[in-house]
Amino acid sequence: MSTLPELSELERIMRLGHDHLEACVACEVSAGNKRFPVYQLTLGNPDPTLPCIGFFGGVHGLERIGTQVLLYFLRSLLTRLEWDKSLHHLLQDMRLVFMPLINPGGMWLSTRSNPRGVDLMRNAPIEALGDVPFLLGGHRISPWLPWYRGTAGAEMEIENLALCQTVKEELLTHPFSIAVDCHSGFGSRDRIWFPHAHSVHPIEHLADILRLEELFEETYPNNRYLFEPQSVQYRTHGDVWDYLYLQSQQDKRKTFLPLTLEMGSWLWVKKNPLQLFSRHGIFNPSVEHRLHRVLRRHTVWLDFLMRAASGHESWMATGPTRLRLQERAVARWYRP
Ligand SMILES: [Zn+2]
Q1: What is the pLDDT of residue 217?
Q2: 86 C-alpha vs ligand 1 centroid, how far in Å?
Q3: Low pLDDT (below 50) residues in the chain
Q4: Bridge partners of residue 40, in order along the sequence
Q5: How far is the CA of 186 from the centre of ligand 1 (A)?
Q6: Is residue 276 a contact partner of residue 197, using CB atoms and an 8 Å limit?
Q7: How far is the CA of 185 from the centre of ligand 1 (A)?
Q8: Rounded CA separation 80/150 (Å)
């Protein structure tokens, strides 16, 4: 029995949803004398021709809010399955994958990295093109410094191997899939980041990302996220979503859109400067009403993405329209 509150809540949710969920332990990790499971949950129709969405969180142990947002959303989905016929219909037409706590060892130890000192978002076998910021961009100096990539040539950390296996087997087997990975800590606005992180070149699916952004703003005009390629802020080595996106591109017929929700926590600190003195403070909302607001707000986004994945054929542009969208997207993000 674990004493990590997020893991206990996940296990409660698994009991609540056992009629609808398939759960497995993707890997187990050690932290001190503790062992923790990394769970992978699936629900909905397993038919690989249908669209799929994957929800990921807890990659960085300090960013507990990402895991909490996903647990709140998953609990609400499972509760709705008790009575919501439309949700049952939706799940007949798509697949959902959840991996809400990828780095339980880091969360237990209150570190960004995993228990071996490796930053899982710097650990994939991919090199940035050009200069990266010192340390922040990923380095191999020492696991005692933040943003450590791991040793050169070594296999990825087991948490990342489990994450990549889940994405390859559960998402990339589908013709259309979206991944959303929930983080916090950067800036004062909520952002949606997309590849690349390793290079300043636009991805081939930039048109689809722009269309998705427009669709969200038309559907929820008061919910604002700042969409941008991660490379606009800083470039990094070893980004696991860049790595998986490039893997997905080995089959050009497939669309895989990996998105990172980066919850802007600096605003929480500005509203409550005492948070600066708490180790968890700058990554997580500390006041209860603010926590509830954060959980509610991002649920709208997660629910939207689920429905957008299911209905992708009605909004994805093709032919000349798609080319024009791609040009517009390049102008917006790469030639401002
Ligand atoms: Zn993070």
Answers
A1: 95
A2: 34
A3: 1
A4: 24
A5: 8
A6: no
A7: 7
A8: 42
Alpha carbon of 9 to ligand 1 centroid (Å): 21
Are β-strands 191-194 and 255-263 bridged in parallel, bridged antiparallel, or unpaired?
antiparallel
pLDDT given for residue 190 in this prediction = 93
Give the pLDDT of residue 1.
44
| Cα 130 to ligand 1 centre (Å) | 23
CA of 117 from ligand 1 middle (Å) equals 15
Pairing of strands 191-194, 52-57: unpaired
Instruction: Record the pTM.
Output: 0.95
Is there a contact between 27 and 159 (Cβ–Cβ < 8 Å)? yes
Ligand 1 centre and the CA of 280: distance in Å?
Answer: 13
Q: Which residue, chain included where needed, has tokens 């916090």?
A: 184
CA of 46 to the centre of ligand 1 (A): 30
How far does the centroid of ligand 1 lie from the alpha carbon of residue 191, in Å?
A: 12
Amino acid of residue 9 = E
Q: Where are the alpha helices (DSSP H) in the chain?
A: 5-16, 64-80, 85-92, 104-109, 158-166, 206-219, 240-248, 266-271, 288-310, 312-315, 319-334
Q: Under the phi-then-psi rule, with left for phi > 0, alpha for psi from -120 to 50, and beta for the rest, what region is 241?
A: alpha
Tokens of 102: 């990828």
Query: How far does CA 285 lie from the centroid of its chain?
Result: 19
DSSP-assigned beta bridge partners for residue 28: 37
| Ligand 1 midpoint to CA 138 (Å) | 13
What DSSP designation does 122 have? G
**Which residues are placed with Cβ below 5 angstroms of ligand 1, an ion?**
60, 63, 183
Six-digit token pair at 119?
A: 């930053």
Q: Which of 144, 129, 165 is nearest to 239 (CA)?
A: 129
Nearest to residue 268, comparing CAs of 188, 190, 182?
188
CA of 299 to the centre of ligand 1 (A): 18
- 3-class DSSP state for residue 242? helix
Q: Distance, CA 322 to ligand 1 centroid (Å)?
A: 32
The pair phi, psi for residue 149, each rounded to 5°, is -90, -15
Measured in angstroms, how far is the CA atom of residue 263 from the centroid of ligand 1? 9
Which pLDDT score is estimated for 287?
75
